[in-house]
Design a protein that fits this description.
The complex is a heterodimer of chains A (205) and B (527). Chain A is α+β, with helices and mostly antiparallel strands. Chain A has helices at residues 2-19, 82-85, 171-204; strands spanning 34-38, 45-47, 52-59, 73-80, 103-111, 117-122, 130-139, 145-150, 161-164. Chain A is built from three helices and nine strands; from the N terminus they run H-E-E-E-E-H-E-E-E-E-E-H. Chain B has 527 residues and is mainly α. Chain B is built from 22 helices and no strands. Classes of the chains: A alpha+beta (205), B mainly alpha (527). Chain B: It is a multi-pass membrane protein. Chain B: One of its GO terms (molecular function) is nitrate transmembrane transporter activity.
Chain lengths: 205, 527
């Protein structure tokens, strides 16, 4: 009995250690060696499902040559600006990249090229209403982040744009909703009335 | 033979099971004049709890009752596992999500109080059908919601449907004998509460099926809400067509034939609120059922955010919390009944205190767990403690009052929701307290708010630490239950139900039943 309890406790402990054995990278350790621009002007409002964003990025040549020798892939992401992170812990910025939830929407994944690359992306219909900027993360062969570039400044205050999401509502849904509601109320009232009538009729007998 | 309690040999075959699923005849005499599928007592309440039967009226009532309550739980907590999608669609802040959670349990504070009175006056069948069918439109309303205030308002209105808890418990109390009521109520309510767990599984699955058919996320979650809405309508129709209020028929018909006397609301209300035990149980239930409801609202999102799980995975884990009700709550009622056999009411009170305090301790540990396997383990033990405590609570409630049972059930149920709303407001709405810390604080509050059960004292049975009154009159069950009626009411014979109940409740003395002296003027030979 004691041995099996010990085994149980040991296996729980081991599995919890296993989760923490990956070395976690931090955002502050990344090189800001990518220059990135995005097409929306500061304060522009884009409609989800309709508007396009054009993102252009390239290696910043002011960095010494050979810095980008380990760069393998690029992921461009749509990221929340601080105002859209307020009171929303599920979008919090954390330095530890595994725990960081700033950039939740992927725009594109490409192989790294030192020359200028760009993509035109239609804002998808599941992007929520919020204020955003664009950031590109560069990964090495081990799929670990090594560099980044973003369309806003370090304080994430300039050049932010907004997305207006779809509501998700449809007229057909609204109509169906009303129909079923009316059915519910009418059938309840109907039963009640019929039973009262049956009760009154049996009283009179 | 048959003059003194316990001496009748009716129905003694030696083959009856000794569990709380059945009451053997020497303890509670069977009424052999009644023609029901199950053996019944003098009030025509079933003495046997046959789970897999649909026998009319007792077992059929059981199944209609718990499934209706289950449906309302599904719809009240349907939003919880979908919050990660809804908060993006409606641009909600943490405060909005928390307030919606408070709203979802607040509506039923009022509706449960009203439902207690409705059951006493109109019967549980109409009560159940009205609530479930009038809240169906509110569930369908989710398709219209476009911002935080709409979301909070709709969750508030859907929450009214939890009044079916009162109809469920009340209906069980009219159909099943007091010796097995703990197990029956525990099972019915527990299986109903499972809806809060089932919904965490059902809604994400419905959502992903609808998404696969082609809907975008922000539309798919709205469509998913139609399913709980349809369930409301279907159950309402079944309750109206297949259900009846009492073993002998419906309340309206029986009141007209003079078999059940109509009582005055003001009297029923007075005897409920002036009994101090009512208020202690209102508080206690706020910290067993209340924390269960709060956890139903926050746990899926907690696992999604803290441990970075997928929506469906977080839903499965959250579901195990609510689904533990399948066995945990009936276990609580069963444990209460078992303790009562040996130790009477004192056993029931101790069982309740132990289960609820254990739940609180494991809630504290859940908040402090940093790894997924430990968090899940702590959560499961917490769920068993809290839910079994709910079952044990309703093993005691039927004995607080006979006249005002409906209102007391309603007030206790309301207390559960009030506790939930208060806890969510204090610990899960502010951005400055993380959900993990909130869970720890909630656990501490559970332990503290369970202490008052030590103060509950019955003159005829005692309390956790004190013995019963030695006075022959004051220490009798009849005195306690008949004292709720005035002399004029007694002259009209309105108290006969309470007298019968007092006789049947002598089992709460535990092992001392046979040795208790029969008090004078206990049971009149004829009215």
């Amino acid at each position: 009995m004691a041995a099996s309890t010990l085994l149980f406790v040991a296996s729980i402990l081991l599995s919890s250690f296993a989760l923490s054995c990956y070395a976690s990278g931090t955002f502050s350790a990344l090189q800001k060696s990518i220059l990135l621009t995005s097409s929306p002007k500061s304060g522009q409002v884009l409609k989800a499902g309709e508007a396009n964003i054009t993102v252009t990025w390239s290696f910043n040549k002011t960095y010494p040559a050979g810095t980008d020798s380990a760069y393998k892939t690029v992921k461009v992401k749509l990221c929340y600006a601080p105002i859209s992170q307020k009171d929303r812990g599920w979008r919090k910025t954390k330095d530890e990249l595994k725990k960081d939830r700033t950039c939740q929407h992927k725009i594109v994944k490409r192989d790294y090229k030192p020359e200028t690359d760009s993509v035109t992306w239609t804002v998808e219909r599941d992007i929520p209403t919020a204020t955003y900027f664009v950031r590109a993360y560069v990964y090495n062969a081990e799929e670990k982040e090594v560099a980044y570039g973003q369309s806003t400044n370090d304080g994430k205050k300039t050049n932010l744009f907004e997305v207006e999401a779809i509501t998700g509502r449809h007229v057909s849904l609204d109509i169906a909703s009303v129909c079923f509601s009316v059915f519910s109320i009418v059938s309840l009232a109907g039963f009640f009335y019929l039973e009262k009538r049956k009760g009154a009729a049996s009283q009179q007998k | 033979m048959g003059d003194t309690p316990g001496s009748s040999m009716h129905g003694v075959t030696g083959r009856e099971p000794v569990l709380s699923f059945a009451v053997a005849s020497p303890m509670v005499p069977t009424d052999t004049t009644a023609k029901f599928d199950l053996p019944v007592d003098s009030e025509h309440k079933a003495k046997v709890f046959k789970l897999f039967s649909l026998a009319n009226p007792h077992m059929r009532t059981f199944h209609l009752s718990w499934i209706s309550f289950f449906t309302c739980f599904v719809s009240t907590f349907a939003a919880a596992p979908l919050v990660p999608i809804i908060r993006d669609n409606l641009n909600l802040t943490k405060g909005d999500v928390g307030n919606a959670g408070v709203a979802s349990v607040s509506g039923s504070i009022f509706s449960r109080l009203v439902m207690g009175a409705v059951c006493d006056l109109l019967g549980p069948r109409y009560g159940c059908a009205f609530v479930i069918m009038l809240t169906a439109p509110t569930v369908f309303c989710m398709s219209f919601v476009s911002d935080a205030s709409g979301y909070i308002a709709v969750r508030f209105m859907i929450g009214f449907s939890l009044a079916t808890f009162v109809t469920c418990q009340y209906w069980m109390s009219t159909m099943f004998n007091g010796k097995i009521i703990g197990t029956v109520n525990g099972t019915a309510a527990g299986w109903g509460n499972m809806g809060g767990g089932a919904t965490q599984l059902i809604m994400p699955v419905l959502y992903s099926v609808i998404q696969n058919v082609g809907a975008t996320p922000f539309t798919a979650w709205r469509i998913a809400f139609f399913i709980p809405g349809w369930l409301h309508v279907i159950m309402g129709i079944l309750v109206l067509t297949l259900g009846q209020d009492l073993p002998d028929g419906n309340l309206g018909a029986l009141q007209k034939t003079g078999n059940v006397s109509k009582d005055k609301f003001s009297k029923v209300f007075w005897y409920a609120v002036t009994n101090y035990r009512t208020w202690i149980f209102v508080l206690l239930y706020g910290y067993s059922m209340g924390v269960e409801l709060s956890t139903d609202n926050v746990i899926a999102e907690y696992f999604f955010d803290r441990f970075d799980l997928k929506l469906q995975t977080a839903g499965i884990i959250a579901a195990t919390f609510g689904m533990a009700n399948l066995v945990a709550r009936p276990f609580g009622g069963y444990a209460s009944d078992m303790a009562a056999r040996r130790f009477g009411m004192r056993g029931r009170l101790w069982t309740l205190w132990i289960l609820q305090t254990l739940g609180g301790i494991f809630c504290i540990l859940l908040g402090r767990a940093n790894s997924l396997p430990i968090a899940v383990t702590m959560m499961i033990i917490f769920s068993v403690g809290a839910q079994a405590a709910c079952g044990a609570t309703f093993g005691i409630i039927p004995f607080i009052s006979r006249r005002s049972l409906g209102i007391i059930s309603g007030m206790t149920g309301a207390g559960g929701n009030f506790g939930s709303g208060l806890t969510q407001l204090l610990f899960f709405t502010s951005s400055s307290i993380s959900t993990a810390t909130g869970l720890t604080y909630m656990g501490i509050m559970i332990v503290a708010c369970t202490m008052p059960v030590t103060l509950v004292h019955f003159p005829q049975w005692g309390s956790m630490f004190l013995p019963p009154s030695r006075d022959i009159v004051k220490g009798s069950e009849e005195n306690y239950y008949v004292s709720e009626w005035t002399e004029e009411e007694k002259q009209k014979g309105m108290h006969q139900g309470s007298v019968k109940f007092a006789e049947n409740s002598r089992s709460e003395r535990g092992r001392r039943v046979a040795s208790a002296p029969t008090p004078p003027n206990a049971t009149p030979d004829h009215v």
